[in-house]
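Per your request, structure below.
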């Protein structure tokens, strides 16, 4: 992965971390969207901490590239092609992962997709595609993981990557709707699945510099550093470190939470992924 937006593989392989070596030894993490910016950083960190990582996504070539880079640095990584919009594909993914690596310990749902557009212009297909991916796809992954843990009599942890829904994030209303649904779903399941020793938490990143920024125009991106009171953008690595916490032993008494990694954007600021209307320019 070239260092066009954020950290590249060489940097991810060596970037300093607060966690001790071996913190994830003996544990397996399944990361959807594992070839993307945030998912890739999460997978790198868990792998560097001694965990086995299964990277899942739709782009076989990108997955292969990520896994090759990780293996070259000694990370135990494997790639799995999946379309989380299709229930049969998700079922097949979990069967393959179980057959090849055993029961997972952590599921990181980083897969998603959206496009910037004024909501009034959304097509039915565009709306349904985003909601099916970001909400329904996340749900399918969560349910499949929970069933595996229930049947194996093992505990598990889920970390869902969402967005800051209480801040002004405009131009991606379909994503806001879907991710808000994931937050509410996670809170409900944190209670329902507590008897199974399954923890469910969310991370809400703010303006994070990743390859996904390519879908937004340069003028919009130029404003992102001013979208939060810390007046900067974040790095995928900062989200990864939060993920390692919520998915690890240090958070065994934490469930149903949404951790904002957003520079305070949930309290102040706004982000326009499309041109800001003159009406709001004061």
């Amino acid at each position: 992965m070239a260092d066009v937006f954020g950290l590249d593989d060489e940097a991810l392989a060596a970037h300093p971390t607060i966690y001790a070596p071996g913190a994830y030894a003996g544990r397996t993490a399944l990361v959807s969207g594992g070839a993307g910016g945030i998912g890739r950083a999460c997978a790198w960190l868990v792998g560097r901490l001694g965990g086995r990582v299964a990277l899942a996504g739709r782009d076989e070539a990108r997955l292969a590239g990520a896994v090759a880079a990780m293996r070259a640095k000694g990370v135990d990584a494997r790639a799995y092609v999946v379309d989380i919009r299709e229930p049969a594909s998700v079922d097949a993914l979990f069967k393959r992962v179980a057959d090849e690596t055993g029961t997972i310990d952590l599921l990181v749902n980083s897969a998603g997709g959206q496009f910037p557009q004024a909501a009034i212009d959304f097509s039915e297909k565009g709306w349904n595609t985003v909601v099916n991916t970001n909400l329904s796809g996340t749900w399918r992954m969560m349910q499949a993981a929970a069933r595996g843990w229930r049947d194996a009599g093992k505990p598990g942890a889920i970390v869902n990557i969402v967005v800051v829904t209480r801040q002004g994030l405009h131009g991606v209303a379909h994503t806001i709707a879907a991710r808000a649904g994931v937050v509410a779903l996670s809170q409900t399941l944190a209670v329902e699945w507590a008897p199974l020793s399954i923890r469910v938490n969310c991370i809400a990143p703010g303006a994070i510099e990743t390859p996904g920024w390519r879908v937004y125009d340069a003028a919009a991106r130029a404003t992102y550093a001013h979208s939060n009171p810390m007046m900067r953008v974040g790095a995928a690595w900062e989200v990864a470190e939060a993920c390692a916490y919520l998915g690890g032993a240090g958070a065994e008494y934490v469930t149903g939470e949404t951790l904002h990694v957003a520079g305070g954007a949930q309290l102040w600021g706004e982000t326009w992924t499309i041109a800001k209307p003159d009406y709001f320019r004061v």
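Helices lie at 9-14, 37-48, 60-72, 87-101, 124-152, 173-192, 218-221, 236-247.

Regards,
D.
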